[in-house]
Amino acid sequence: MATKTIKIFLASSSELSKDREQIELFISRENDDLIEKQIWFKLVVWEKLLLSFRGERIQNYFNEEMLKCDIVLALFFRKVGQFTKEEFELAYKNLKEGKKPQYLYVYFKSASISTEEITKDYMGIIELKEEIQKHKQIYCSYDSIKDLQLQLKRQFDLIIPKINGVINKPASAPEVSDTTPVIPETYLNWLREYCSYMDIDKLQEKINIIQVKLPELYIPLYAYEPGKFTGDKHTLEEKERQIDIEELIGKNEYLLIEGHPGSGKTTLLKHLAYSFTQGSSIKGFDNFLPVLIFLKNLSGFFDKADEIVGEGSNSEKILSYYFNSIENVIDLDTVKKFCSAKKALFLLDGLDEMKPDHRDIVVNSFANFRIKNEGNKVVFSGRPHSLEGAAIKRFGDNHIRILSLNREQIEEFIRKWFYYVYSEGSKIGEKNAEAMISEMKDHPALVMLTDNPLMLTAICILYHDGKELPGQRAELYKKFIDNLSIEGLVMILGKFMCF
Prior knowledge:
There is one protein chain. By secondary structure, the chain is of the alpha/beta class. It has three domains: 4-175, Toll/interleukin-1 receptor homology (TIR) domain (Rossmann fold), CATH 3.40.50; 218-401, P-loop containing nucleotide triphosphate hydrolases (Rossmann fold, 3-Layer(aba) Sandwich); 407-497, no CATH class. The protein is built from 20 helices and twelve strands. The chain has helices at 17-34, 58-66, 82-96, 120-134, 145-164, 185-195, 214-217, 236-239, 245-251, 265-278, 315-325, 332-340, 356-372, 390-395, 407-421, 426-442, 444-447, 453-466, 473-483, 486-497, and strands at residues 4-12, 39-44, 71-76, 103-109, 140-142, 222-223, 243-244, 254-258, 289-294, 344-349, 377-382, 399-401.
């Protein structure tokens, strides 16, 4: 059988020249594996087309070559290049008409943008994303070239059999049964979009905006094994058994996570969900589907009282309502398939953001659901007061508390923070990190305020802005009032008031 050639056109502006080079290398490596299947990827880039003067503008020639391709990849970063936009629009028009390309993928490279960098060029990126959403299509985001290659690999494995007309398993894929469910790409993209950044915008109202990538700054949070509580007292032996909470989730079928305001509950669950988009390596999560649910978004569900059945039989109705609220990037049938395979992980965040009676209905519904679907995992998180009632009754035997950050965690976070903020000058970042750590040692009264991820983040933001720490706690509070948003102040005060 003759080798089947699949032509791929790569469209992007010159600012992504290094990414283009890496994609070319990636395609070459893919061809090494595909040649045995008599498939060949031919990457078409303008740099390797005929660049001679022509009787018409040369972009028309590039467009003609693009429309001969099976796949078009359009990459964008900080601006929408005139010709890249033209190529994207033409490819989309042809695709809708049933012509080539058969597949069109749009990828936006994630960028940390300060207020000063929100230029006319970057507004073009925002407008393009809105245009894609208006057409009810989907775009993807990537943090690094490795992330992009992983996403492309997954897509190529899906579409090669369709283009080639035969069903072949990817050479690198493990042997799986035909009934093994697959996480929809639309849902993976949603997780990447919603879980790749830390929620610190509420802390930054009067100072420069800093977008912080969660995977790059995340530090593990710890707790004791469920059932190891002795009030607030623990033996030395117990303290040596502090365990990464993500590992505890992997080891247990259900878990109830307690944490004070700003202790990292939401960040923990977002990080775990995001890890599945990169290939989770945590023991106990092989081929699992993470179903991430922000409970605060269920308030509308309870407005339809006629749809609520009893107090503990609403799990499917709740899931259907929630999936509809996130534009059905995943559906109930997919979740059921994973449940049947005992591969569903439900991450329900924010018990404290629900009314008590609504909270009990949700907890009882998923407690009953878990009993009927053994082998799947259910995790709830909330502030101390929200664990009263159904939560502690139904999940209390696997109840854990997030421990305060220790000195090693604090210093690790500070170093990661400044290395990230000064990514283009890591020596400056390293210097500022060590300076802040040194100042904290000189002001022990402030150290207790940094044992909480939210407080530590706020202090890092203030230090980054002013390059010094206040000597007294009162001075620090004044800086909070002068620089942070009202919502951010409420979140921080909540740590001490234990809302």
